[in-house]
Amino acid sequence: MQLHKRDVVDAATALLDDYGIADLSMRRLARELAVTPGALYWHFANKQQLLGAVADRILEPVHGERGGWRARIVGICGQLRDALLSHTDAAELVSASFAAGQSEVMDDVLTQLGAAAAEAGVTAANAELAARSVVYYVLGFTADEQSRMQWDAAGADVAATVWNQNPSARFAFGLNLLVDGIAAHSRADA
Amino acid sequence: MQLHKRDVVDAATALLDDYGIADLSMRRLARELAVTPGALYWHFANKQQLLGAVADRILEPVHGERGGWRARIVGICGQLRDALLSHTDAAELVSASFAAGQSEVMDDVLTQLGAAAAEAGVTAANAELAARSVVYYVLGFTADEQSRMQWDAAGADVAATVWNQNPSARFAFGLNLLVDGIAAHSRADA
DNA sequence: ACCTGAACACCGTTCAAGT
DNA sequence: ACCTGAACACCGTTCAAGT
To answer: Measuring CA to CA, which of A36, A43, A78, A123 is 20 to 30 A from A141?
Structure first.
């Protein structure tokens, strides 16, 4: 039967979850789908575009949140982190897709964070910057967290003491640094 | 004549500057040095370790700064950004080496940022986190900035308006968000 | 100690040709 | 429209064997 984009992205996500990003190759994916590598290039222009589609699949559960600007920022960042932690190497994959401009969902996230920053009182020109800073933090923190998880899932409990205690609290602390910074740069605080 | 680690790292850096990270392969590097690929594996355990050495070569100009905690954070981050902007794809390369734990200089940077945060009044447990947040920001921002520079050096002046004006000021704004956040989380402000 | 030769097990991408 | 076959131009890594 015919190969659809959705099937390709689903198989790619399964490959990611089971073997990690290093084994997510076009050839391996084609083998899994029982097609020739060239077949994938009928549906996707290149690997980067396919990975972008996988990124957006992973980020499907990320939606906006209601409430004040603080709650909206903290909420969407929490959803983002949760989605990333649900798939092997997802933080790395989404970081790459975001940098390459291949993730529509990340663009949405950026827009929402920017709106929240604007509501906090940051000028329009700086609101996008504030939003980007938050995204850099979430992706950096989560990629770090995830690589450590995989490291000591592989049996190495070296100096894990500091990192293993309350990763969510640690995540919140760094995020609050930015939120407080945004609040400091504004007049109307909610 | 004999191949030394320094020669290998120098050649790798030249390759990076001239052709970018995508063309920095073990085989290409060996060809440039007029040796067999296997020769490189006498000097370096693997590619990751070699890239870590290149990262630390790029970061050589990054040293500490004197002054209050704010000046020390802003200073070292500025040096970091300057070093990264001096070599093609350096932000991407250093990010990867940092994530892989292969850059000693980045560990030093982390230590110095942590000390500055502690001096700002952040608790010892949170100081390292604050330091990491700053590093995530600098690497994220600069990787973004650098990829855009290369994009529109290649002739695409699409919506460059917002990004091209005062990248240094934009960098400072986001960094200040974090610095202000750190100040908000402390008692003694310098 | 340091390097070569040669192999192993892969990659992403293209494109004429088939159905 | 959708896919195969086959090629092109590569990868990182290992390791016996040479000097």
So the answer is: A123
Identity of the residue in B130, B147, B177 whose CB atom sits nearest the CB atom of A130: B177
* CB neighbour burial string for A162-185, b if at least 16 within 10 angstroms, e if fewer: ebeeebeebbebbbbbbbbbbbbb
Q: Domain of A48? A: 5-56
Closest CA in chain A for residue B175: A133
Closest by alpha carbon to A88, among A135, A24, A33? A24
CATH of residue B38: 1.10.10.60
Q: Chain B: residue nearest A146 by CA?
A: B99
How does residue B1 score in pLDDT terms, banded at 50, 70 and 90? Answer: confident
Q: Please check whether residues B111 and B20 belong to one and the same domain.
A: no
Q: Which residues touch strand C (CB under 7 A)?
A: A 23, 25-28, 37-38, 41, 46-48; B 2-3, 34-39, 42-43
Same domain, B91 and B126: yes
Query: Based on the domain organization, do A144 and A176 belong to the same domain?
Result: yes
Residues of B in contact with A106 (CB under 8 A): none
CB-contacted nucleotides of strand C (7 Å): 2-7, 10-16
B122 and B168 assigned to the same domain: yes
Percent of chain A with pLDDT over 70: 93
Same domain membership, residue B181 and residue B135: yes
For residues A24 and A74, membership in a common domain is answered with no
Q: Which nucleotide is nearest to A4 (CA to C1')?
A: D2
In the structure encoding, which two tokens stand for residue A165, read together? 């205690």
